[in-house]
Amino acid sequence: MGKESLFRAVKGMNDLLPAEAARWQRLERSFAETARLHGYGEVRTPLVERTELFVRSIGETTDVVSKEMYTFDRHDESLTLRPEGTASAARAYLEHAVHGREPVTRWYYVGPMFRAERAQRGRYRQFHQAGCEIYGDRGPGCDAEIIDMLRTFFGELGISALDVRVSSLGGREARTAYRDRLVAFLEPRASELSELSRQRLVSNPLRILDSKDPGDQALLSGAPSIHDVLTEDDRAHFDGLRRYLDALGTPYVVDGGMVRGLDYYTRTVFEIRSDAGELGAQNTLVGGGRYDGMIESLGGPPTPAIGFALGLERLLLAMPSAGPEAHGTCFFAPLGDRATEVALGLARDLRKHGVRAEVDSRGGSLKSLLRRANGLAARLCVVIGDAEVERGVAQVKDLNEHTQDEVALDRAVVILADRLLGSAITAPGGVA
Ligand code: AMP
Fold first, then answer.
1. Which of 93, 200, 362, 429 is most buried per CB count within 10 Å?
2. Does residue 428 carry a pLDDT above 60?
3. Ligand 1 atom nearest to 309, measured from its CA
4. pTM of the full predicted structure?
């Protein structure tokens, strides 16, 4: 390690260097493909929105809004780095009057989010979410489809030990009734609650269910369940969700104590957790649910909606480490100027076949060039010296097989591409 650098990244915000970024790219590609196959189109919104948008949609008394937002003033406006994606997507949906153009809209997004939380493994201040939103479908068919899509996606990524939890928070009516019941249950026991939960008893009683305090949890085990106060319609919706999940063969457990941290949820809520890989305590991979009231509360027409957000950092911690890249690198070790000319041309033509090729034209010794090829974990190393150029050949070392042979320069591109891609190559520009 060199001298300690003067500058360090902001706490809880991480650099991604190329080796790691390659895993990210693969994950983002497979998420985008999964979303595409389910009919979602990508939406990209700004990283910054008016603060009021988050206050209104996420809720003033949530942890995210009251404690964790990166907010600043510019030109007499209060702006905030987005702490999540749903509010921005809903804003864009309304701003572009998408509801007037199509009855059902399916969007997905991927990108960085910002929350000033206590940084730890799996919890960062700049983190990345991938999410989907469906507007215009009351469910519960699409609710079940989303949960099943996520479970299948995680399975394809090799993440095991999945724990799918579903619940219903009911609509506005049930939530108000439940809030009253919960307060009536907890008020006489307020002195036994933790200080934070005592505050929440006034500001946002439902959040008490989220308390990590063991004393609170013990007290809550006797509390009424939200499922006791669901209206008939809420109950029919929740029963429908469970029926569809059963039909799809998606395992889940009903968890009546799940409230999720954001205020906008109505009816279906769900989380998927896992104990796989290096996740540790922050083991919720994805959270989501319905927010049937949000679009209207932002000034739009009544529009049912559902969405989820998954944490990319957490998925990567849960995923088994990736195998080697499908195709290896072709490394060129030219010894001299003329050889470099030849190598640059061969590498360019090889790349047209989709082969990753790297020319080391620094002019080192054969030994140092081979060391570099091994350091890159290249599959083939093409050595060309003046004598080879004279004879119109190159020496090809297979660094996996530890073999070497001589290849004619005018056939080299086809032969090298064939070896690396494992299929017959006919002409430059096309793989047969
Ligand atoms: P939320 O938007 O809070 O419902 O979170 C949805 C998902 O985003 C979580 O299940 C995590 O996977 C991820 N997530 C939320 N907050 C963080 C954070 N601070 N750091 C890393 N991932 C996070």
1. 93
2. no
3. 6
4. 0.87
